Automatic annotation (TrEMBL):
Transmembrane segments: none annotated. The lineage of its organism: Bacteria, Bacillati, Actinomycetota, Actinomycetes, Micrococcales. It comes from Microcella alkalica. The active site is at residues 103, 206. Residues 30-54 are annotated as: Disordered. This is DarT domain-containing protein.
Amino acid sequence: MDECIHGFEPGMCASCFPPPEPEKVAIRRAPKAPKTNLRTPAPGTTAAKAPEPRASNLPKRIFHVTHVRNLPAIIASGELKPSSLSAEQAEVVLASPITHELRATAQATADASVLECIAFSLTPRATWWSLVQDGAAGPTWSDDARRALAVDFIVLGVDIPAVADRLIVTDGDAAAMTTAVGSTPDAAKRMLARAAMDEAVMQAAEALVPGTVPLASVALVAVANDKRRDEVKRALADAGLKAKVAVYPPWFVPTPIA
């Protein structure tokens, strides 16, 4: 399959394959309706219904960001693990202890806390990732996060079908009490549809997967520069892994939060 200059397959790179302009729909003038009371709908009319997003517009991948120094432990275990299992092995932990505590007490499902799920985003332009790139200020983040450079991170992309049967999707911080959680396949799909129609939700949403995800399920690893790409490609090849490694600098600079 042909790739773009950034190493992505057709359709996955927003720069080389920008989304098509929406088709213009001709507007027909309706005949004037008889005057009615503004509080009462005119006879035969119904409330306008928001258009349903097409399946082709729904997110196709979820993204897990980690520091490159955590990659050797991930490769050694052969899988991505939730923070509850990997925090002691990780060289660079981004979340502060208070964040871990909040996520440990928030339930993603009846059987798993948020901390017992692998945290993904629906977009590599996620709100939390922009905050880390901007300096990781505040009690949410660790000293490791504040010291880290954006170019030292990698973005792991997993195709949604690989985890669809376990996927949980939220519309914001999974540990926040006001966050809506889609914890069944149908509910998760509805949350994906909601995110597809609202960029603010897309950036704020979390995608959670209870348990572990085999590293072989990682379809893409995005990095900030050529030096990092060569390093990551060697590490993956030595482990017999075939994930595509692509250089895509825009994912490693802060973006405005919608």
